[in-house]
Each structure stands twice: as structure tokens, then as C-alpha cells.
Write a structure and sequence with these properties.
It contains two helices and eight strands. The protein has 136 residues and is α+β, with helices and mostly antiparallel strands. The strands form two sheets. The protein has a four-stranded mixed β-sheet with strand order 4-1-7-8, with no helix packed on it. The longest helix has 33 residues, at 3-35.
């Protein structure tokens, strides 16, 4: 056997070992940097000021509606002869109101004011209209 080939294999194995330790160190460093602030931000839940007041007009009499804010179902029922009014405390930085007509599955989205507001929902000529007024 040639002694020269044994030395080159030994050098190759030492080089791979050093490279493996370097990669392991870099991975540990990135994991540490990524998780060091995570425990501080999870300790307290975010709360938001502002209330949304949603009023569904009596023009929806007999219709079946679903009302969502973001992905949370707030109301899912048939509308009687009276207007429906409910309040929701703001629970996200940005919120979208979605009115779904259960008969046609038509979705009417509306971006809400981040400070909270009063929202009037009414139906005119088969179309859903959403009007927003700032809270006083």
C-alpha cells in the first residue's frame, strides 16, 4: 500500500469533520438567535381598544345571513322583521367584516377602521351595502 494515499484520505476526513462541526455551530447559533425573544412576546396577550357596533337593517327580512369578522363567525341566522344590533370588541390589528348571503353564497367584504366604528348593513335592490361611521 502506498503511504501517500493514506495521508490524503486522512486529511480529507479531518477536513470533513471540521466542516461538520462548523455547520453544527452555525445551526445552533441561528436557533438561539431565532428563539431568544420568543418567550418574551408570548407572555402577554395583545388587547386592542375599540368596539365595532354592527347593525343589520330590517331590509333583510326573511333572508338568512352569516356575519364574520376575519375568520370568526358572529351571527348566522334568518332575519326577522326587526333590525339586529350587536357589538364586538376589536381583537386583531386589521379586521375585515364579511356578510354572506346564505341563499346565494355571495360574500360582501369590508375593511374595518382600526379604532372601532359603527357599521350599518342594508340591502337595496338585491345588493348588500355597508356604511361605516366612526365611534363618538
Amino acid at each position: 500500500m502506498n503511504n501517500k494515499s493514506i495521508n490524503s484520505n486522512k486529511q480529507f476526513m479531518i477536513g470533513n469533520g471540521i466542516l461538520a462541526f462548523g455547520v453544527f455551530f452555525i445551526v445552533c447559533l441561528f436557533l438561539y438567535l431565532g428563539f431568544r425573544n420568543q418567550s418574551k412576546s408570548n407572555n402577554k396577550e395583545k388587547t386592542f381598544a375599540g368596539i365595532y357596533t354592527v347593525e343589520i337593517a330590517d331590509s333583510f327580512t326573511g333572508d338568512s345571513l352569516s356575519v364574520y369578522i376575519n375568520d370568526s363567525l358572529l351571527f348566522n341566522s334568518s332575519i326577522g322583521n326587526t333590525a339586529i344590533k350587536f357589538q364586538v370588541k376589536r381583537f386583531a390589528e386589521e379586521s375585515t367584516l364579511m356578510i354572506v348571503d346564505s341563499r346565494t353564497d355571495e360574500v360582501t367584504p369590508f375593511n374595518l377602521n382600526p379604532e372601532g366604528s359603527q357599521i350599518a348593513v342594508e340591502k337595496k335592490n338585491g345588493k348588500i351595502f355597508i356604511q361605516e361611521a366612526a365611534n363618538d
